Amino acid sequence: MSSANEHVLPQGAGYGVGIGLFFSAFMVVLTAVQARYTGFSPKSSEEFNSASRSVKPGLIASGIVSAWTWAATLLQSSAVAYKYGISGPWWYGAGATVQVLLFAQLAAKLKLNAPYAHTWLEIVAARWGTVAHIVFMFFGLATNIIVSSMLILGGSATVTDLTGMNTIAACFLIPLGVAIYVVVGGMRATLLCDYTHTAVLFAIIFVFVFTVYATSPKIGSPAVMHSLLQAASEAAPVAGNAHGSYVTMRSKNGLIFGVINVIGNFATVFQDQAYWQRAIASRPASCVKAYLLGGLAWFAIPFMFSTTLGLSAVALRGDPAMRILTPAEVSAGLPAPTAAAALLGKSGAAALLIVLFLAVTSATSAELIAVSSILTYDIYKKYFNPKATDGQILRVSHAMVALFAVLMGVLGTIFFYIGISMGWLYEFMGVVLGSAVVPIAVCICWKRANKWGSIGGAVAGFCAGITTWLITTSALNHGVVNVTTSGGDLEMLSGNLASIGVGGIITCVTSYFWPENFDFDTTRAINVPSQSEPATEQPLDYTADHEKKRHEVSSETVSIASEPTEEDELDPAALNKAFKFAAWSSIILLVVMLLIIPLPLFFAQTIFGVGGLTAWVVIGMIWTFFSAFTVVVYPLWESRSALKLITTGIIKDVFAKGGGKFIVAGEASKA
């Protein structure tokens, strides 16, 4: 890419990725296979919105990894690696992993205190009433809007840079293509999509990793990478880094980014319905396991991707194929696609485009189904039609998916025209959203949480965050407040700290001095199925011993075994035990990832030699292999019975003329 006006790929490649109709068609076929051969049909609102609450931990973990892999995960992580060196990937990865690990505690409390809720806002409404419901709905929808805008901004900027595709067209075509399979397949299709995306994502990451650190004639080994980074730091030392080096954890600006990253991502995990949706869809017995596995597996993606392409963008400065990047292009997340094209030419650009498409569409599908659930259950059903039938809920859910897909395109276009990039929005999200983190957590977990203190904390923290951010921007930039000046590290840090700090302090202080004594039986009663309702469909996990108990297909009895029902798994003692395990394990991992590993390296001002960088890279590779096994191989193993069932059904359809259709016992006579 020798000039900014040249594009590595033809414009048609951009439109092909933007539309994504092939992938939508693939997911529609998967949904049809699921409906025919497993008995799960997205024609039920419960299946559409929560996958019948029956998904096992491997697939949930894969879904968490996929939903948490935004455009920013690949692009922003590489941008901070480009700016700060090896500390950037660590602070990006660790600073956004601990929230998912800690969310395991909320997932356990959700199953204990509101096992039949569809959204986290239903719990807020049941506990604290309408005012709290509306206040926290603002934070919930603001989270979805900011996350969605980052997805569209990052995706469209990269597609435009690599192909020359019209940015506005990319803003609209990306979400609309995804909306097709979400409407058709619902939550389970989203999880299947997540799994498919995650598998391909890891494959392409391995291609880049082994190219850069093993086979590339331009780099080819950690030793060459080290020498190129040292040369780059001598030519242009990194401000705030020990000796201006790229191979040190002693990075002042990297640490500041780490704090911003931790605060902002607490907001986008705890307040994003997409994460609650996966907890709701999971089996009660395994939701904690899924979040711990998913969080640890996800870390490898931004860490290894940016340690590879972000550092390569620095190492290849001066290479004829590597163009010079402006600060605006770095903020837009372009170091990764530029490095990919410089390393592998058109094939590298195409691989990057595919991996970005997968990241953007999987995260977009998570946001679409999440917002659809909030608009359907927390606005339509709560305020407009409390007695809505299953069919009405399903129709509204479909309409809301389509509506938000269009809105995502509009938001991306607005931010593009006013000059706000993905990087700016990524650091800003904690300023707006951080104040509600502690109030939401205590609402789900703590019976003593004070209603008005929590509402007041969220609102006051929001105001404090915005005010502090603007005052700091004005003070540090001689009264000049604009998009450029307000996006500085210290400006964003002050707003993030004020938002989460004020919100958390007010909530905790009022709850300590004026505690409530809430009975969670109120939230446990949310959406409890009546005895007259048919039992929830059984999950796709069956054992051969119980084949004859539940289902028949055609003239033969098909083995589909029932594991313990959801009610059996909602044992309070077991869920409390799961919560304690989640608490201890997540807090230990938080301390290790945010304190024990990075801070000694920071304060020691260690500059890695060749051996140190090699060890750093090799450990990242090993972690990535284990992550791929966890979220690609493990889900196949745990779903082996369901895969066998589907295979059997397809074979019967081929050789027995329609004899493979799944029929629930008692309905065979209707078939």
Automatic annotation (TrEMBL):
Cited InterPro entries: DUR, Na/Glc_symporter_sf, Na/solute_symporter
CDD domains: SLC5sbd_DUR3
UniProt keyword list: Membrane, Transmembrane, Transmembrane helix
One Pfam family from the record: SSF
Annotated localization: Membrane
Highest taxon of source: Eukaryota
Transmembrane segments: 12-33, 91-110, 131-153, 165-184, 196-215, 254-270, 291-316, 350-375, 396-418, 424-445, 452-472, 492-514, 581-603, 615-637
Membrane topology: Multi-pass membrane protein
NCBIfam families linked to this entry: sss
Family recorded in the similarity comment: Belongs to the sodium:solute symporter (SSF) (TC 2.A.21) family.
Name of this chain's protein: Urea transporter
Originating species: Somion occarium
High-level lineage: Eukaryota, Fungi, Dikarya, Basidiomycota, Agaricomycotina
